[in-house]
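Repro case for the chain-ordering regression, as requested:
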Amino acid sequence: MRIACPICGERDSREFSYKGHALALERPTEDAGALAWDDYLHNRDNVAGVSEELWFHDMGCGSWLVAERNMVTHAFGAVRLAEDVKEASA
Amino acid sequence: MRFSALKILKEGLTGNKGWTPHWRDPAPKPEYDAIIIGGGGHGLSTAYYLAKNHGMTNIAVLEKGYIGGGNVGRNTTIVRANYGLEGNSQFYSHSLKLWEGLEQDLNYNAMMSQRGVINLFHSDGQRDAAAKRANMMISQGDDAILLDKTTVRELLPNLNHDNIRFPIYGGLYHKRGGTARHDAVAWGFARGADQRGVDLIQNCEVTGIDIVDGVVQGVQTTRGAIKAKKVGMVVAGRSSQVAAMAGMRLPIESHVLQAFVTEGLKPCIDHVVTFGMGHMYMSQSDKGGLVFGGDLDFYASYAQRGNLPTKEHVMEAAMCLLPQIGKARVLRSWGGIMDMTPDGSFIIDKTHIEGFFVNAGWCYGGFKAVPASGYCMAHLMATGQPHEVAMKHRLDRFVTGRGLMDEEHSGSQHNLH
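-- result from build under test --
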């Protein structure tokens, strides 16, 4: 797999670390309760199709990325900086 | 039809005309007492033990493809009981005992080969960890021997013992571990279940689960609706999709695990060997192929094939341990889809839906669990109570945080196992 980092361009996937489904931007509040935290930490839609994921470009520019990827074909869609995604949803 | 030496001799002399199909190909009935979704190793063993131990014979196994075509045919066939955690330890110990009597029980040659598993260690720290694990295995009632470097050299003369970076200090030898022929395990359980009256329905994909007021009523399939008061999902690799039909989200991410086999070679490895300083383990099949694998690719996937970086890592580790493997050609590589749970252990439990049971989350360790998984799932479905060796594998352990089964002590979060 090659990942198109918005800052560095298309790079080998070995430069990136996978951090799971892109949920970190939806962190529950501290008093949200056990079920909400369980859902956030553990439960996943885990679709056999396009998913939004967090990748960390740790061997490159160090940016956090939100990438669309098809879990059946491994084909990447849009790759955006996590900070841009967060600002857009704020 | 029973298999015996006499039967083989007779058929050999009479043109092999007397062999019959191993199981029927029935059409689905409108209603069963219980339905198992998934005709893999675990689903078939669940059906077999429901019929054998609990007398439930009006049951069906629904398989969307064909028997033996999923993960039960995509693994590296290793059988062992070397777990340390309370709960896992009893479960895998029970499973190994079932493996030891399986061929006689099923009247089927599963090519069970207790050739021994040797986990190599390469430092004093790893030796301490191996000694601790060996003691845990012995205290569970299983077998473990701590081998020194001289004995490892005698047992495994072809390894690179004097690698300057990763010298072999010794090994943890689990003699009753070994391998079994994965396809034959599926076929043996399928045949055994069929002989007891279980309907094995292939090419029958479940498309919906009927639930009314929190009680399961049956399933919708590509071959029509089928009613049942008890439905068990045993579909590791696709658990999230089937659970979604029941409106559930599971604590599972799907990941791909790759494996490889070389061309047939003369005997060079007699045991199952694991390398302690990289993710690589290998054994040699009866055909001579070195069967080896490594770690997950570490990104979610349903592709049943992996990427090159993991292949490269596994090949490097194989070269490091057994340099002569560099002369062998890799014939095939494949990937299986793993239900990865946050703590790395499986789930066998009831759900909040009455009559709907879940067997999932086998991570990368499902094959050795095939007999005990079915045994415990059958017990749960028949009696409504968990079997004593699978009591800790609850679905709600992630909500409460109590009884997490983190065998690797790496934490209970996705992507750590």
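Ordering looks correct now. Chain B has a mean pLDDT of 96.
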